[in-house]
């Protein structure tokens, strides 16, 4: 298995790739408005809409930003009004934060986020000035992994530079990146460095076998996963990746950590679909082979699992993409389906601790917003409070934009209040950017559920 | 006589409006009467195809040639009513090769630009075409909005001094000394408005009026026979019905014709936000009373999915039927209505029946309406001794003057770009007048079709309280919710200019009219939509149990007046921040109000 | 199977929530499975039990005036007859109506659960009689329970009333609604005024934007709103606004306005987007949490596994993976045509999760009536329950031993014309949930 760290993570930008999904007997959007896949025809998706406005009531942006007309307008309405020629995408599409709560709300399966992603891609491609500060800023934010890759080579220096006041002042003034936020610290040892040092897949196989023996599972049990750690667990919070490894090995799973790029989430949110597709091609190709060998793909970040499960097959046509999508799981989701996690937790206990838990929007969209609460309710020593069903407000790169910062904090206000009210002073969430926002708004330390699971079970 | 020669045009369809405009421009004093709204008859009930002539290129080359000529004229004078989508004649494997060649040849003979495309090329243009099609011919078909076209013609006629009277049904043809001298009309009591509105003059509701003129033109299409009867002349129109099924979205952006001789269900016309599937051809007795049947709708979907497979699963939002005013000289005697010519006939009742003062115009098609009108106007002018040139082919209709639809709508009128674009497509050059002069908030009233308050108010100023007339001007309530979310908003727009009972009646009429067509689409998504609509209007608004409508007296005392009757609700002063919920609980927004129970005042 | 409970409720609307709460009373382990947001968000937030007896088609045709019902001018119209005493009127419903299965006691049980859930947030529980609330269409409607913010606006309270609408809002026109109410003969003077909302938002700003601004008292908006309304107040004793007076802090906003205006302030329920519906949804889900019900939402139930006439698990599509959710007893509460618990195509009407029998006329043109407010057959589409609310097949036998149905998925009720949607959901949800709990823990 090759290692992503041997090469810079993104190719030179600028050549939009060709091709789109093939029309099939079922509705498959096809490109009718132009050459690239960023201009798929989603008008038929408007057939599902019966205008009930539930998407609008679930939109955290429309609630604080009246420039944003809401997901119903941006989605099925705008698409239905679209023509092959002469249509423009309303520029308010750039105010959508891609939290995808509209997807989670729609009782009629309108492909809302797909519509938004596609329209945003078209807007960025055709209507946005490629030399504008906004475009360049969005491009850089969307390609976080590129920056992170460089930074990880010299983490201490990077951390020092990024927390250096004048640097931040210049970034805000020249690039529109808010100086209100602290950049996340880069780990001195990335997850992959740790993993390699630990012995990679071979070590994991040995550990898994030992665990099976201990558990009384058959030695050759078909328990193997391919870990999609994403950028953040690799560069910033390797402790989450390590926790996943320890927890899954304790249940007897062999783990591999295949070559991977960014899942594409920040690129979708900024309409950089060509960048996202290039990343997706690498990810799909490396995970598709493993899926064929019987591995399931498991992610620790809910936005990454969302991208692989939903956005990839919706937006791209890549060989093996459906197999990968169907065999991708979020970590807790996977264990809950496969293992008696509840039973394991019931027998465990940890030191007394209290958490303020926030369910990320992308977890909600996969139906996973309550699993951590449900599980840890049964864990001895733990008090866990849900801090509400609001959006944290950061939505990946949204809250990093200077002009969106204030709205981002308004959206997060409810969550911050509830966190302060909660008994615990440690936050918990699955999503790295929600974690940034939680920390930014409260100063709390934020943990991932896998870390608590590790503490309970390993 | 020094008096201005006058003419009375019966029928507010495309032909009648076209004649009225033409005559008015030539200086004739014109009055047009229509028993319903403009386009009430056939014009408003067609699929909106602007023929390239391709459809007639084999069977009727004279019509084909006229079509391509008029197609070019309309693109020039009625650009805001026309969308040049282009058209394809698509051949399937089971369709005749020879006919395809004949079609291509025929188009060339008639001067219709035609280009043969491979299946691949055709599918590149229209990706949802079936994978197994053989090939296609590309022609300059387009889509025309018949409502807008008629309204523009009528408005221009008024501009040139004509009187246009809608909701005025002809109840008698006045004959004096063996000559037609006018008609008697009855002004409807339940439509239109008694107020003198800017453009369409309305008589006092419920009254009759005798209108006199030097010449009467019977342009009532499928109803021409009924007018004829009033004057004791026979006009043997053979009304033939056809179904049109409206899809929720545009599956294609090009007119798709089946390339085969003739047959039902052989065309898909992209029309505004929708596609219209057409049609059938079946002779009926009475143009106002004929069965509208489910098999016809099924036939459209099943047959046309052979060309565009996704139609079989796609959502339809309604179906409607139109009646063609087919006519052929009685001696021809075609059995099948599809064999009847689509040409038009001018019946001069003086020459034909010895009844001077009136002519009837029958047959024909929308694409060539202007040319027909020109012929009739020539005839009328000749009878009236007016010597004036026809100018209708040169002068653009109101709304179609030089105009670009691509502007910055947000900066200019505070509109989102798709809303601005759609408004511009409907209003054409009138957009500056309608939106630019609007003062006050301009919310979107119909979200499906992106119609704002300013446009609704403009339509109300033209057509009064009849919301169906507002609908055909603006397309409000013609989208996928079929009025579920906007019928009542449109009615609200009538107040305060009109009183509440008037607005309520208008709402009921529009709601029922929408229901009539939506009933033909009630399965799948549209049935869910209809149920939601039923819930909104019956459950949430209780419009079906409205005491104001029934006139029933409700015993308000029999219903509870509330537990805390007489007190202000005591909710002030509590500490609303609330405490954290119990272990494991889910903290939601409403915890705050619950927390209030512990709060002190 | 890793995911297993005693009772699995499929559907997250009022019926599903009530069923889950009723099942949880028996100490059963309960999971509620919901797909997306429920139709609660489209509904007005009122809890109707039986507000009207539709005339023509779906009733027993007796036309008799029940105790307390508004006097009917028989046969003069196809409009529905408003009902003041819902429990007394249920016997006038058709035989196959779900109320006829659960009876008045069933309705009482459902309301009892509801009243526990909502506490002070709703009123109307002090009596069996309906109250008349004002609708945003300018009519009055009988309902059994209504949010406390709606309570000061009841039509039977004789108080001079001012309705206030906002210039850019198209759904509610206050002067039109006032004139309409007057035409309906309400026993109070009513006027309408259209004012400009003190903060100027874009014309297409959503109602949640207005509510949020009031919640947070952004730019002193509450005082400014009160100032604008004061100019129109005169001697009006109460002021009605469309239901957008805040969301999280709605009661605080209302109290603040009452304080400043010196008049009672009430909300008029609206169609979607319905803040009142959302607030009710939150109350229900809080109650589910408090009762220890587990909730999985976001994914669609697509099928089931059964053995020997008993369902063993429901299969949930988690982005391409069919994950089994096992239980002893199941409740089907997926809603009707709007909630997608009932599906249809050109030929047939189906219940998509378990394939239960849904009777319907063969010709789809018999599914509806020519009159827009007619006695549409489609409005009554749904599964046919036995005496224990188990869906039955075409021959009248139960489809599955351990499956009960509740709410909109049940056929036989024209809940739109009857104004009975929430009541049917509460009554049948309570019955189905209680029975499922009993059976699972027996």
Draw up the topology in text.
The complex is a heterotrimer of chains A (458), B (601) and C (442).
Chain A: H1 54-57, H2 60-64, H3 71-80, H4 101-105, H5 112-126, H6 133-142, H7 144-153, H8 155-162, H9 165-175, H10 191-198, H11 200-215, E1 224-228, H12 230-235, H13 238-250, E2 254-256, H14 265-269, H15 273-292, E3 296-299, H16 302-315, H17 321-326, E4 328-330, H18 331-338, H19 341-346, E5 349-357, H20 361-365, H21 371-376, E6 380-386, H22 405-421, E7 426-428, H23 432-442, E8 445-447, H24 449-457
Parallel strand pairs in A: 1-2, 1-3, 3-4, 5-6, 5-7, 7-8
Helix pairs in contact in A: 3-5, 10-13, 11-13, 13-24, 22-23
Chain B: E1 6-10, H1 14-25, E2 29-33, E3 49-50, H2 61-77, E4 82-83, E5 87-91, H3 97-109, E6 115-118, H4 119-125, E7 135-139, E8 142-144, H5 146-159, E9 163-165, E10 168-176, E11 179-187, E12 208-212, E13 215-218, H6 224-230, E14 238-247, E15 255-258, E16 267-271, E17 274-278, E18 282-283, H7 294-304, E19 316-326, E20 344-348, H8 349-353, E21 358-363, H9 369-384, H10 409-413, H11 417-427, H12 431-436, E22 444-446, E23 451-452, H13 453-463, H14 467-474, H15 487-494, H16 500-518, H17 524-540, H18 547-550, H19 591-595
Helix pairs in contact in B: 1-5, 1-9, 13-14, 15-16
Chain C: E1 7-10, H1 14-24, E2 30-34, E3 52-53, E4 81-82, H2 86-89, H3 98-118, E5 122-123, E6 131-134, E7 140-143, E8 146-147, E9 161-166, H4 174-183, E10 190-195, H5 207-215, H6 221-233, E11 238-242, H7 250-261, E12 264-268, H8 275-290, E13 294-297, E14 300-307, E15 310-318, E16 321-326, E17 329-332, E18 343-344, E19 349-350, E20 403-405, H9 415-418, H10 421-441
Parallel strand pairs in C: 1-2, 1-17, 2-13, 9-10, 9-11, 11-12, 17-20
Antiparallel strand pairs in C: 3-4, 5-8, 6-7, 14-15, 15-16, 18-19
Helix pairs in contact in C: 1-8, 1-10, 3-10, 6-7
Subunit structure (chain B): Composed of a catalytic GlpA/B dimer and of membrane bound GlpC.
GO molecular function, one term (chain B): glycerol-3-phosphate dehydrogenase (quinone) activity
Family (chain B): Belongs to the FAD-dependent glycerol-3-phosphate dehydrogenase family.
């Amino acid at each position: 298995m090759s290692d992503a760290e041997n090469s810079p993570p993104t190719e030179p930008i600028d050549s939009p790739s060709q091709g789109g999904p093939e029309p099939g007997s079922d509705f498959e959007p096809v490109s009718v408005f132009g050459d690239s896949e960023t201009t798929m025809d989603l008008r038929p998706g408007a057939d599902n809409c019966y205008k009930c406005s539930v998407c609008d009531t679930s939109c955290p942006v429309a609630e604080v930003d009246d420039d944003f007309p809401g997901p119903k307008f941006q989605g099925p309405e705008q698409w239905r009004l679209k023509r092959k020629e002469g249509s423009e995408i309303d520029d308010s599409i750039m105010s959508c934060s891609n939290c995808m709560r509209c997807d989670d709300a729609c009782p009629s399966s309108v492909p809302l986020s797909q519509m938004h992603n596609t329209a945003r891609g078209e807007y960025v491609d055709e209507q946005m000035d490629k030399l504008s500060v906004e475009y360049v800023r969005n491009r850089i934010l969307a390609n976080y992994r590129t920056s992170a890759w460089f930074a990880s080579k010299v983490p201490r220096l990077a951390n020092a530079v990024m927390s250096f006041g004048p640097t931040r002042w210049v970034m805000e003034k020249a690039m529109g990146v808010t100086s209100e936020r602290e950049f996340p610290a880069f780990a001195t040892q990335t997850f992959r460095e740790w993993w390699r040092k630990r012995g990679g897949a071979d070590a994991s196989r040995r550990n898994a076998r030992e665990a099976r023996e201990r558990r009384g599972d058959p030695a050759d049990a078909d328990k193997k996963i391919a870990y999609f750690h994403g950028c953040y667990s690799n560069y910033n919070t390797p402790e989450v990746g390590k926790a996943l490894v320890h927890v899954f090995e304790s249940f007897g799973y062999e783990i591999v950590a295949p070559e991977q790029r960014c899942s594409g989430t920040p690129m979708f949110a900024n309409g950089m679909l060509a960048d996202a597709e290039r990343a997706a091609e690498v990810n799909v190709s490396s995970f598709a082979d493993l899926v064929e060998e019987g591995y399931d793909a498991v992610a620790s970040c809910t936005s990454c699992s969302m991208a692989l499960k939903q956005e990839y097959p919706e937006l791209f046509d890549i060989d093996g993409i459906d197999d990968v999508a169907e065999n991708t799981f979020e970590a807790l989701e996977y264990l809950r389906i496969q293992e008696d996690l509840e039973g394991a937790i019931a027998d465990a206990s940890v030191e007394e601790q209290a958490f303020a838990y926030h369910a990320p929007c992308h977890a909600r969209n996969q139906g996973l917003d309550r699993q951590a609460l449900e599980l840890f309710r049964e864990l001895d020593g733990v008090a866990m409070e849900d801090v509400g069903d609001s959006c944290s407000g950061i939505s990946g790169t949204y809250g990093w934009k200077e002009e969106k910062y204030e709205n981002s904090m308004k959206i997060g206000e409810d969550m911050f209040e509830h966190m302060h009210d909660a008994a615990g002073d440690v936050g918990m969430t699955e999503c790295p950017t929600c974690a940034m926002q939680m920390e930014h708004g409260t100063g709390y330390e934020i943990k991932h559920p896998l870390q608590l699971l590790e503490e309970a079970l390993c | 006589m020094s008096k201005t020669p006058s003419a009375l045009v019966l029928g507010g369809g495309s032909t009648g409006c076209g004649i009225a405009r033409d005559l008015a421009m030539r200086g004739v004093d014109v009055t047009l009467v229509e028993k319903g709204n403009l386009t009430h008859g056939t014009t408003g009930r067609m699929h909106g195809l602007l023929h390239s002539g391709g459809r007639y290129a084999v069977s009727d080359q004279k019509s084909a040639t006229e079509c391509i000529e008029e197609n070019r004229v309309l693109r020039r004078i009625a650009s805001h009513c026309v969308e040049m989508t282009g058209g394809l004649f698509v051949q399937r494997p089971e369709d005749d090769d020879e006919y395809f060649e004949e079609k291509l040849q025929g188009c060339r003979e008639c001067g219709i630009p035609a280009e043969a495309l491979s299946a691949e090329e055709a599918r590149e243009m229209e990706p949802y075409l079936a994978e197994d099609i053989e090939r296609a011919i590309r022609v300059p078909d387009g889509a025309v909005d018949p409502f807008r076209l008629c309204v523009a013609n009528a408005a221009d006629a008024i501009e040139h001094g004509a009187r246009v009277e809608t909701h005025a049904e002809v109840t008698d043809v006045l004959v004096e000394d063996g000559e037609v001298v006018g008609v008697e009309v009855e002004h409807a009591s339940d439509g239109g408005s008694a107020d003198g509105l800017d453009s369409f003059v309305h008589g006092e509701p419920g009254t009759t009026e005798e209108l006199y003129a030097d010449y009467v033109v019977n342009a009532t299409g499928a109803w021409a026979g009924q007018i004829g009867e009033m004057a004791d002349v026979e006009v043997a129109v053979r009304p033939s019905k056809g179904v049109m099924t409206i899809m929720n979205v545009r599956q294609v952006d090009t007119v798709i014709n089946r390339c085969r001789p003739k047959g039902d269900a052989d065309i898909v016309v992209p029309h505004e936000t929708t596609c219209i599937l057409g049609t059938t051809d079946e002779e009926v007795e009475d143009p106002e009373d004929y069965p509208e049947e489910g098999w016809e709708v099924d036939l459209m979907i099943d047959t046309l999915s052979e060309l565009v497979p996704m139609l079989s699963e796609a959502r339809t939002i309604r179906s409607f039927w139109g009646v063609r005013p087919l006519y052929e000289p009685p001696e021809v005697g075609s059995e099948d209505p599809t064999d009847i010519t689509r040409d038009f006939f001018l019946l001069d009742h003086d020459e034909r029946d010895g009844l001077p003062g009136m002519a009837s115009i029958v047959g024909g098609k929308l694409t060539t309406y202007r040319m027909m009108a020109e012929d009739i106007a020539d005839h009328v002018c000749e009878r009236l001794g007016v010597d004036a040139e026809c100018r209708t082919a040169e002068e653009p209709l109101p709304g179609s003057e030089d105009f670009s639809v691509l502007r910055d709508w947000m900066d200019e009128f505070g509109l989102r770009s798709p809303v601005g674009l759609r408004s511009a497509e409907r209003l054409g050059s009138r957009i500056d007048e309608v939106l630019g002069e609007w003062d006050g908030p301009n919310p979107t009233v119909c979200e499906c079709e992106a119609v704002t308050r300013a446009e609704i108010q403009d339509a109300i100023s033209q057509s009064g309280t009849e919301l169906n007339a507002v609908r055909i001007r603006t397309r409000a309530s013609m989208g996928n919710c079929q009025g579920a979310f906007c019928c009542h908003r449109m009615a609200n727009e009538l107040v305060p200019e009109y009183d509440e009972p008037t607005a309520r009646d208008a709402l009921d009429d529009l709601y029922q009219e929408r229901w009539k067509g939506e009933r033909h689409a009630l399965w799948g998504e549209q049935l869910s939509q209809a149920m939601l609509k039923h819930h909104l209007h019956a459950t949430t608004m209780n419009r079906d149990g409205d005491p104001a409508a029934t006139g029933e007296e409700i015993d308000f005392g029999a219903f509870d007046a509330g537990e805390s009757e007489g007190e202000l609700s005591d909710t002030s002063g509590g500490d609303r921040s609330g405490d954290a919920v119990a272990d494991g609980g889910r903290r939601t927004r409403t915890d705050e109000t619950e927390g209030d129970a512990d709060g002190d005042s | 199977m890793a995911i297993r409970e005693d009772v699995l409720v499929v559907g997250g609307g009022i019926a599903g929530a009530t069923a889950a709460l009723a099942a949880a009373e028996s100490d059963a382990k309960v999971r509620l499975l919901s797909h997306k947001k429920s139709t609660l968000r489209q509904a007005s937030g009122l809890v109707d039990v039986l507000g009207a007896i539709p005339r023509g088609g779906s009733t027993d045709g007796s036309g008799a005036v029940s105790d307390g019902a508004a006097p009917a001018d028989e046969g003069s119209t196809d409009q529905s007859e408003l009902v003041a005493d819902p429990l007394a009127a249920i016997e006038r419903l058709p035989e196959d109506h779900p109320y006829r299965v659960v009876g008045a006691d069933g309705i009482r049980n459902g309301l009892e659960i509801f009243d526990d859930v909502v506490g002070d947030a709703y009123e109307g529980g002090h009596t069996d009689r309906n109250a008349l609330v004002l609708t945003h269409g300018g009519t009055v409607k009988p309902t059994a329970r209504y949010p406390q913010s709606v309570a000061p606006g009841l039509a039977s309270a004789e108080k001079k009333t001012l309705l206030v609408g906002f210039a850019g809002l198209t759904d509610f026109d206050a002067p039109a609604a006032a004139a309409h109410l007057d035409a309906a003969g309400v026993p109070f003077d009513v006027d309408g005024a259209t004012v400009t909302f003190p903060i100027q938002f874009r014309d297409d700003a959503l109602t949640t934007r207005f509510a949020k601004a009031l919640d947070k008292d952004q730019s002193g908006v509450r005082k400014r709103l009160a100032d604008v309304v004061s100019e129109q107040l005169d001697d009006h004793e109460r002021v009605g606004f469309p239901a957008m007076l805040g969301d999280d802090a709605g009661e605080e906003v209302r109290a603040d306005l009452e304080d400043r205006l010196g008049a009672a302030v009430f909300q008029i329920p609206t169609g979607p987007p319905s803040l009142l519906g959302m607030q009710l949804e939150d109350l229900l889900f809080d109650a589910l949490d408090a009762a220890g019900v587990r909730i999985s939402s976001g994914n669609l139930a697509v099928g089931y596994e059964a053995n020997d006439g008993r369902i063993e698990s429901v299969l949930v599509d988690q982005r391409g993976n069919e994950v089994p959710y096992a239980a002893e007893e199941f409740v089907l509460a997926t809603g009707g045509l709007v909630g997608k618990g009932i599906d249809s195509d050109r030929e047939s009407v189906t219940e998509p999760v378990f394939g239960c029998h849904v009777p319907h006329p063969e010709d789809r043109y018999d599914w509806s009536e020519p009159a827009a407010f007619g006695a549409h057959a489609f409005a009554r589409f749904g599964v046919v329950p036995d005496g224990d609310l188990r869906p039955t097949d075409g021959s009248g036998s139960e489809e599955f031993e351990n499956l009960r149905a509740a709410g909109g998925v049940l056929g036989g009720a024209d809940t739109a014309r009857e104004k009975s949607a929430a009541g049917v959901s509460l009554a049948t949800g309570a019955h189905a949930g209680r029975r499922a709990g009993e059976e699972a823990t027996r």
